[in-house]
């Protein structure tokens, strides 16, 4: 299914300028590199499973898939915040720098960073293909907006859980907003479905943010900054996008998270 990014009017000037395109392009290239590592991990995990069947080493790879997807998002938020002058500040909780949701009376730092860089259009303009209830091995999605509490809860859950994932455990009080196989009964595993939930969600967050920020700042050749479209189609090739869609290895089984963005959509 292909869905459009939701329109949302700018409310303030963008925190970035056309002249900052080279620096923003570097942040986008770092995001491509970071997610490229995640893609490699997914493909290796699939190759091990196909060759050997169930293998305990795959659990380690799944944890790394989720962890590195969160890290790519966190790095993007930090770099955009530095470029737009919107964060992080010394008052920010280091563990919440990539969070969207509120903590008491304070919004997550990522919400502030995205809003400043996009003239107030983000995160409201986001239109995220979010894991649908009762999803199992084959991923299905429902579209949620950037104002969704479920989206903020899921992003913040992953950001806060990153330390636990790195140490082989997930918190037992899991604020995961959909009924899925999101964690096993002993709270110590990230299974393949959960790992791909993290990948698909953070891919979309970064790519849609790039698109809106670049357009709002009036940057030229903005399409050159986007994440590779093949990843949004669920194709795992790291070579340049090709016209023969579906020819590369699959990153997940199930629906695509590909979407369309036009100037009318984002006006």
Describe this structure in words.
There is one protein chain. Helix content is 45%, strand content 5%. The chain is mostly helical and 267 residues long. The strands form 2 sheets. A two-stranded parallel sheet has the order 1-4. Strands 2-3 form a two-stranded antiparallel sheet. The relative contact order is 0.19. Residues 182-187 and 262-267 have low confidence and may be disordered.
Counted by DSSP, the helix tally is: 7
Estimated share of beta-strand residues: 5-15%
Sequence of secondary-structure elements: EHHHEEHHHEH
Content-based structural category: mainly alpha
Helix proportion: 40-55%
- Count of structural domains: 1
Summarize the structure.
45% of the residues lie in helices and 5% in strands.
Write the layout of secondary structure elements.
Elements: E1 3-4, H1 21-52, H2 56-84, H3 109-117, E2 127-131, E3 141-145, H4 149-166, H5 192-216, H6 229-232, E4 259-260, H7 263-266
Parallel strand pairs: 1-4
Antiparallel strand pairs: 2-3
């Amino acid at each position: 299914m292909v869905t459009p990014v939701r329109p949302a009017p700018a409310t303030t000037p963008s925190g970035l300028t056309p002249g900052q395109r080279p620096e923003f392009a570097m942040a986008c290239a770092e995001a491509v590199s970071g997610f490229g590592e995640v893609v490699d991990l997914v493909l290796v995990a699939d190759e091990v499973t196909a060759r050997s069947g169930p293998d305990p080493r795959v659990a380690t790879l799944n944890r790394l898939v989720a962890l590195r997807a969160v890290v790519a998002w966190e790095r993007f938020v930090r770099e955009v915040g530095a470029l737009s002058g919107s964060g992080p500040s010394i008052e920010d909780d280091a563990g919440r720098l990539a969070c969207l949701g509120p903590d008491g009376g304070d919004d997550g730092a990522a919400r502030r960073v995205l809003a400043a860089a996009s003239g107030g259009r983000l995160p409201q303009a986001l239109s995220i293909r979010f894991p649908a209830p009762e999803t199992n091995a084959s991923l299905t999605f429902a579209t949620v907006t950037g104002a969704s509490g479920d989206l903020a809860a899921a992003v913040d859950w992953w950001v806060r859980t990153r330390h636990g994932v790195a140490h082989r455990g997930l918190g037992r009080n899991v604020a995961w907003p959909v009924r899925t196989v999101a964690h096993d009964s002993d709270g110590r595993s990230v299974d393949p479905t959960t790992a791909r939930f993290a990948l698909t969600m953070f891919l979309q967050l970064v790519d849609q943010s790039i698109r809106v920020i670049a357009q709002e700042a009036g940057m030229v050749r903005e399409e050159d900054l986007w994440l590779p479209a093949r990843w949004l189609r669920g194709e795992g090739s790291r070579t340049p996008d090709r016209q023969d869609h579906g020819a590369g290895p699959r990153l997940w089984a199930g629906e695509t998270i590909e979407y369309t963005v036009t100037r009318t959509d984002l006006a």
